[in-house]
């Protein structure tokens, strides 16, 4: 929800700038706010005669946008709408016109105990005919006999899966489903199992799990939601992300089929995600009486040169690389930003000063 301009302090004038903030390693780390978080959004939301347009552009995910917005609103003590949240899988909404009613296999995104979260997000986007990996495991445990998790974490998820399966006559449906695409919703919690199911669908001439062709048929489409090799959390060094999973999936599929995996990847640094974000920013500007053309400079504030900075530079945005996440201060960035800054707070201060909004 946009703030009424009359509630903001009249300082400066309407500028041409807008912001896209990465979240992990820029605003939070390990779920905890990074120092300087509050002043950023006090200034963007309240210091001027207009609310500076901004979105949160992350390769993170696994939650509904409304849930992430609520959490960020609490951390920043500001109004954050779900329309401002662009997660790795948010752009999947663009696939709904083509895949809303087609059978789709959905991998990754949640442990079995939280499987309903992925289901509800996909349903909320408009997908109606999808099957989760956990549903396949509930059909036949020998589809991936190494699938396991602590029993204490599974009771809620398994109860929901059982009820959901009964409602859909699920066990009959899985064996008969002809999957038309594979979507990696978010980071896999079971690399081996998810790669197995992906290969099962792609190597079947009909897309049916449990059938195998000669690998000469057209490959079903595959969609990854991001390709970050590494990301940061509360652990001292970076952790592997969906980009590492994608490399593993490509290698296994090629070894098994003799073919290169053909796939579409969303998320940063890919153009489709930046175009989606810019459209949102221009919409926010227009809602305040600014024309879309007035948003001339979009600044990406990120910590990962290979995703945040590379994508922003390629799309024609300006970029600020901060030192609170993946990037190691003092090293040469693989993709040079428009600006280096210690933190998101310092980056925003410097950028606003360039537009005489300091």
Brief characterization of the structure:
With 358 residues, the chain is of the alpha/beta class. Helices cover 37% and strands 14% of the residues.
Shape, principal axes of CA atoms: elongated
Question: Secondary-structure element order, as H and E?
Answer: EEEHEHEHEHEHHHEHEEEHEHEHEEH
Helix and strand content put the structural class at: alpha/beta
Largest sheet: 6 strands, parallel
The fourth-level CATH homologous superfamily of the largest domain is: HAD superfamily/HAD-like
Radius of gyration based on Cα positions? 22 Å
Unreliable residue runs: 1-13, 150-156
CATH topology of the largest domain: Rossmann fold
Into which percentage range does the β-strand content fall?
Answer: 5-15%
End-to-end separation in angstroms reads 25 Å
Pfam family, one: Hydrolase_like
GO cellular component, one term: mitochondrion
Keywords: Hydrolase
GO molecular function, one term: hydrolase activity
């Amino acid at each position: 929800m946009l703030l009424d301009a009359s509630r903001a302090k009249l300082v400066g004038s309407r500028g041409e700038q807008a912001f896209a903030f990465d979240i992990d390693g820029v605003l939070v780390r390990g779920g905890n706010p990074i120092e300087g978080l509050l002043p950023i959004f006090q200034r963007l939301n309240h210091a001027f005669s207009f609310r500076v347009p901004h979105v949160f552009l992350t390769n993170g995910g696994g939650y509904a946008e409304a849930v992430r917005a609520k959490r960020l609103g609490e951390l920043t003590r500001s109004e954050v709408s779900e329309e401002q949240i662009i997660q790795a899988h948010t752009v999947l909404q663009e696939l709904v016109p083509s895949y809303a009613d087609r059978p789709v296999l959905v991998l990754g995104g949640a442990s079995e105990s939280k499987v309903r979260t992925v289901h509800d997000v996909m349903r909320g986007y408009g997908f109606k005919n999808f099957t989760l990996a956990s549903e396949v495991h509930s059909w036949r445990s020998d589809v991936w006999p190494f699938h396991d998790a602590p029993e204490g974490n599974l009771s809620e998820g398994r109860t929901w899966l059982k009820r959901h399966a009964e409602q859909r006559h699920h066990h009959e449906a899985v064996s008969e489903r002809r999957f038309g695409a594979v979507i990696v919703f978010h980071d896999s919690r079971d690399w081996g199992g998810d790669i197995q199911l992906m290969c099962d669908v792609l190597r079947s001439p009909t897309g049916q799990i449990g059938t195998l062709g000669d690998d000469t048929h057209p490959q079903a489409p595959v969609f990854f939601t991001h390709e970050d090799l590494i990301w940061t959390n509360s652990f001292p060094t970076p952790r592997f992300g969906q980009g590492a999973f994608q490399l593993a999936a490509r290698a296994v599929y090629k070894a098994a089929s003799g073919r290169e995996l053909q796939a579409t990847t969303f998320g940063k640094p890919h153009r489709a995600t930046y175009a989606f974000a810019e459209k949102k920013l221009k919409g926010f500007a227009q809602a305040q009486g600014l024309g879309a053309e007035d948003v001339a400079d979009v600044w990406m504030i990120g910590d990962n040169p290979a995703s945040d900075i590379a994508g922003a530079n390629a799309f024609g945005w300006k970029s600020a690389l901060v030192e609170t996440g993946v990037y190691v201060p003092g090293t040469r960035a693989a993709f040079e930003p428009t600006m280096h800054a210690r933190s998101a707070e310092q980056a925003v201060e410097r950028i606003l000063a360039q537009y005489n909004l300091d």
